[in-house]
Amino acid sequence: MSQEPVVQVSADVAASARLGARTRVWHLAQVREEAQLGSDCTVGRGAYVGPGVVMGNACKLQNYALVYEPARLGDGVFIGPGAVLTNDVFPRAANPDLSVKSAADWDAVGVSIGDGASIGARAVCIAPVVIGSWALVAAGAVVTEDVPDHALVVGTPARRIGWVGRRGKPLEPDGDRWVCPESGERYLQNGDGLALAD
Question: Is 189 within the bounds of a domain?
C-alpha cells in the first residue's frame, strides 16, 4: 500500500499545505495554505480546510464540512456533512465606514476539538469553543459553550443530555460510574467531564 497522500484532480491543495501519509482529499475539496493534516485523514467532496488549520491523524471531514482557521483538531476527529467550525465572534463584511474588511481588520478565533470527538451533520461550533475528547455533538446542534470530555450535547444552543463512551454509545449509570453497554468500559467523573476509570 502506498504511503503517499491521494489528491483528486479537481481538489485544490495549496503548495504549502502538508498532508500526512495515506491522507485522501476528494473532489472539489480545498485545503488552504500552511494547513497541516496528519496521516490517514479523509477530506470529503467540497470540504474546506482553512489556512493554518491543524488536524491530527485519522480525522474525517465529511462532504461540504467547513473548518475555518485557526481550528485545531486532535486525532480521530469526525466532522459530519455540512458541519461548520466558525472563526469570527462578530462577523461583518465591511468596516463601519463600509470599506471592505481585510484580514488586518479582525482577529480570527478558532474551535479546538479533542481526540476522538464527533461533530454531527450540519452542526455549527461557534468559536472560540473547546469540544472535549470523545464528546459527541448531535446533528444540527449549535455549540456556543465548551463541551466537556465524553459529553453528549444536542439542540440550539447545545446542552448536555448525557455521556458517551469511546465507541459513541450513550453510557449507562452504575453507582458512581458510567458504563458503556457495548464495550463494558467504565468511566468516572473528572472535573466537568468523564474519564476512563481503568
Answer: no
Query: What is the model's pTM?
Result: 0.95
Residue 94 belongs to what domain range?
A: 6-98+107-164
35 occurs within a structural domain:
yes
Q: Per residue in 34-49, pLDDT tens?
A: 999 999 999 999 999 9
Residue 105: all three cell numbers together: 481588520
Q: Measured between alpha carbons, how far is residue 142 from residues 42, 85, 117, 158 in Å?
A: 24, 10, 16, 5
Residue 103 pLDDT grade (very low, low, confident, very high; cuts 50, 70, 90): confident
Domain count, the chain: 1
What number of CA atoms fall less than 13 Å from residue 77's CA on the CB side?
A: 29
